[in-house]
Amino acid sequence: MSRPKLRPLALGLLLTLSVAAVLTTSAFAARPHSYAPTLSVDWPAFSSLSTSEGTSSTNYIVAGCGYNSSYGGVTIVVHSPAAISFAGGMPDAQGCISVANFWTQGAGHYQIDAWQTMGKKDAIVASTSFDLSQ
Known about the structure:
This protein is α+β, with helices and mostly antiparallel strands. It has one helix at residues 6-27, and strands spanning 40-42, 59-64, 74-79, 84-89, 97-103, 108-118, 121-132.
């Protein structure tokens, strides 16, 4: 009886698994650990307005700094009680963004995420939230 040659098969399998692990890691890679831009909400109409009380339609500004323009534009996505809204643009020379075309849509939770393309994948790079009650 001849003994099967497992060594070439085992090496081929090991190589295939190694390549698959590298590709999977890069495909699911998130933002770099040192990349941590900020995101906040400003209330220009009512400087004394708190995030727990407000009117049904109040303008607010989403702003932040620390964005790397080499990753491209920043998309702001707002999940409000009534809709999902988005807007964005390129960070300025200091790496800051400011988007002023958002309005509250009644009481509830507002989740705000900043997205950028990291390699070939879009990723949330910063987020914040607030709650409004009537």
